[in-house]
Design goal:
The structure holds 3 protein chains of 3 kinds.
Chain A lengths: L1 H24 L3 H25 L4 H27 L6
Helix pairs in contact in A: 1-2, 2-3
Chain B lengths: L1 H29 L3 H27 L3 H30 L28
Helix pairs in contact in B: 1-2, 2-3
Chain C lengths: L1 H10 L2 H15 L4 H25 L6 H30 L8 E6 L5 H13 L3 E7 L2 E6 L2 H8 L2 H10 L11
Antiparallel strand pairs in C: 1-3, 2-3
Helix pairs in contact in C: 2-3, 4-7, 5-7
Classes of the chains: A mainly alpha, B mainly alpha, C mainly alpha.
Chain lengths: ~90, ~120, ~180
């Protein structure tokens, strides 16, 4: 089973690599942000998969939980920044 | 026997999740503009991650770890729609014009020496 | 009197602290005395800090009936998510890509912030629609094709949210 999960993780990472094209190319900053968002979600899932592959150290789950929260905060903060420019948020 | 059944369930859900992720990526690369690209990200990605994590729940059995996995699923479902909204709004407020099919797009006459401002969407 | 007020203000975040502490206990599984004490102190501090924020933001109209209706709502929403994914996958993998994107707007009769936020999230999760801006009670929604726009303007999701939060004119709360 752990080999199968490893294969799934590799497939997801290849998928994220393809998304990198949009991050490099994307005409607007928002396009890049969308690409980064997909890559973030893939990384989250790969963390969870490696939790099962690496014989379940609890640490991985906590890291994944925090990663999910950070992913959300990064996206919202960056899009607020793109929306308002450099002005402080009010 | 039970092992085989849970293994099959996990495998099916994981493969489904990979297909959803792939759909999200293909959409990201193929669709013409920012707003359309939001659709595969907010939908394909979320359901892909959700199905894979559900499959992993079968693998872990019933313990506190499963609860954490469910917490991650709930948070993903809540946050991804909000993320899509935030990105879309940041473009909409800055008046990025949506792409339209050539037939539906209004004809804009180009004149020399006049820069076209983005019109309100 | 002053002492009682002080005790009351210290006890206010207690329910939230208990919930946080229970969650922490389930997640970490620590049993040693020092660990439990640390968890309890942390839970109380976090509850104390975030209580002011929550009290201002929580809608006073939320009640138990809505919590009871929520599972059915979540089930309908999950069905919508699956449908939405199928639709997007079909369109993205089709060689001709049958899309004609447009931004449409409509006014909602929902009034409370919670209901409007829920509706915006639900619209994003239904097939082919993403909310891009919410200005007062006016929703700007990006639709992937004409049929999505028509489906959106029928207002099925709006009625579902109105039913969940018991808002709007009574005859609009029926789900069809």
């Amino acid at each position: 089973m752990s080999r199968f999960l490893l294969a799934i993780a590799i497939a997801l990472m290849l998928n994220a690599l393809v998304c990198l094209y949009r991050v490099v190319r994307g005409p607007t900053a928002q396009d890049r942000l969308i690409g980064v968002n997909i890559i973030n979600t893939s990384v989250l899932v790969v963390l969870l998969l490696s939790f099962f592959v690496a014989d379940r150290p609890t640490m991985y789950l906590d890291i994944a939980l925090v990663y999910a929260l950070l992913n959300f905060i990064v996206t919202v903060a960056l899009s607020r920044f793109l929306e308002t420019g450099r002005k402080p948020l009010g | 026997m039970a092992d085989v059944v849970t293994g099959l369930l996990t495998a099916t859900l994981c493969l489904m999740g990979v297909v959803f992720f792939l759909g999200g990526t293909v959409g990201l690369l193929r669709l013409p503009d920012l707003y359309s690209r939001l659709h595969p990200v907010t939908k394909g990605d979320t359901l892909g991650a959700t199905t894979i994590i559900l499959g992993l729940c079968f693998q872990s059995g019933f313990n506190p770890d499963t609860l954490k996995l469910f917490a991650i699923i709930a948070f993903l479902l809540l946050s991804s729609a909000t993320c899509g909204h935030a990105i879309g709004r940041s473009a909409f407020v800055r008046k990025v014009r949506p792409w339209q099919t050539p037939a539906a797009a209004p004809r804009v006459e180009k004149r020399e020496g006049e820069s076209r401002g983005l019109e309100e969407a | 009197m002053k002492l009682r007020n002080a005790v009351a203000s210290l006890a206010l975040p207690a329910p939230l602290a208990v919930v946080l502490f229970a969650l922490w206990g389930v997640f970490t599984g620590v049993t040693s005395w020092s660990g439990v004490a640390l968890g309890a102190v942390t839970a109380y501090l976090i509850a104390r800090i975030s209580y002011g924020l929550l009290r201002r933001r929580l809608d006073p109209n939320l009640n138990v009936m809505m919590a009871l209706r929520f599972p059915l709502f979540a089930l309908v929403l999950f069905g919508e998510i699956v449908k939405a994914n199928w639709d997007v996958l079909k369109r993205v993998f089709a060689p001709t890509m049958p899309i004609s994107p447009r931004i449409t707007s409509f006014d909602s009769f929902l009034s409370s912030d919670v209901a409007k936020t829920t509706l915006a999230n639900c619209i994003t999760l239904t097939p082919g629609t993403v909310t891009v801006e919410l200005d007062g009670s006016r929703f700007y929604v990006h639709c992937l094709a004409r049929e999505h726009e028509e489906e959106l303007l029928k207002g099925r999701m709006e009625r579902l949210v109105a039913w969940l939060f018991a808002e709007g004119p009574p005859d609009s709360r029926r789900i069809r």
